[in-house]
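Database export, one record per block. Field names are fixed; values are copied verbatim from the stored entry.
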Amino acid sequence: MAGFPSPAQDYCDGTLDLNEYLIDDPLTTFVVKVVGDSMVRAGIFDGDEVIVDRSRTPSDGSVVIAVVDGELTIRRFRLTPSGAELHAEHPGHSVIRMREGQELSIWGVATRCLHRL
């Protein structure tokens, strides 16, 4: 025998299916690669991938993938007395406040962030 037995052998329970751990509904879930630094204070960095569930309804504080006037963005969804707002988690990015005539579509709620090590 060469080497030592793996300590993980005691915990191995067959195959690993990440869908069981990361995805609630495979039919409504997709992955988006993040470009930019607008969400760094939320722990979401340029190059990360976020798991997004289209079946979830965003609530105040949810991180969402949204389309504002045709542009895709990731932001924190906030409900205010004047309406919905999209907040960045970086001081260099302004709040997106919906104005008359603007189009907003929420594609889904981010449920997990995947980082490369």
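Remark 1: Residues 18-22 form the longest helix (5 residues).
Remark 2: The mean pLDDT is 90.
End of record.
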